[in-house]
């Protein structure tokens, strides 16, 4: 169970978040109107994309390294297995790295939300706080992993595993993490599909 819901973090944010200024919302000293705007932006994001927080799994394939920990097809394999279990998979990332994010979506065979470039700096921490799991390539700043650690969101960092770790092993670990979440639950699979390149063939 989460130690700190996002709404209670104003006075308890980990110093680790200072390593990722691009990923955190305005400082707690911001005006109430800024907070209200941020909340409204997040609510709009959730409504527009149909995000289901109780079964949300985030995939962040972007890497700070020349040689990413994993290729897109292995991310897609894990994402496919979790989506088939009924978890809602969302791919996040920066717009400057479309090959990595779009590559995972293009290799997937099941449902996914494609949120790369759609989540702003003020809304990303809220999305991570609501997620049941984050799968990320590495933890280098400004990785979403720093935010996940501060918020208590379960996460798997592929760079911290041997390079030849199989996707099935990561899927087993992801399922174990998800099974520990008291109010998380998978739903029916294939509830939303973003067209990928192979769909047009």
How many beta-strand elements? 5
Q: In what order do the strands lie side by side in the largest sheet?
A: 3-2-1-4-5
What is the CATH class name? Answer: Alpha Beta
SSE order:
HEHEHEHEHEH
Distance between the termini: 44 Å
Mean pLDDT: 79
Major sheet description: 5 strands, parallel
Question: Can you characterise this structure?
Answer:
There is one protein chain. The protein has 6 helices and 5 strands; from the N terminus they run H-E-H-E-H-E-H-E-H-E-H. It is an alpha/beta fold and 201 residues long. It has one domain (28-200): Rossmann fold (3-Layer(aba) Sandwich). The chain has a 5-stranded parallel β-sheet, sandwiched between helices. This is Glycosyl transferase family protein. Keywords: Glycosyltransferase, Transferase. InterPro entries: Glyco_trans_9 (IPR002201), LPS_LOS_Heptosyltrfase (IPR051199). One of its GO terms (molecular function) is ADP-heptose-lipopolysaccharide heptosyltransferase activity.
In short:
With 201 residues, this protein is α/β, with parallel strands linked by helices.
